[in-house]
Amino acid sequence: MKVYSVRCPDCGFMNRGLYLEETGGWFECEFCGSVDYAGSGVEVYVESEGMTPESSAGRAAPLRRAASAVSAS
Ligand SMILES: [Zn+2]
Predict the structure, then answer these.
(1) β-strand partners of 26
(2) How far is the CA of 60 from the centre of ligand 1 (A)?
(3) Is 26 in contact with 37 (CB distance < 8 Å)?
(4) Which residues pair with 3 in a beta bridge?
């Protein structure tokens, strides 16, 4: 489950900790209360993809190997 940050297209407030996958991309702005769809023209950032040790280890390992391979050559 990814956690998203979305900038409200109406007031510019950055809404953090949103679970857009649960709402199908809809969110309610915490500042102005408007309900918007996180589609085109809306700034959407992925905060995290879950903090489980398995997912973080699986992501970090290939990156470390690639970095060492570059420095060795
Ligand atoms: Zn807003």
Answers:
(1) 37
(2) 35
(3) yes
(4) 48
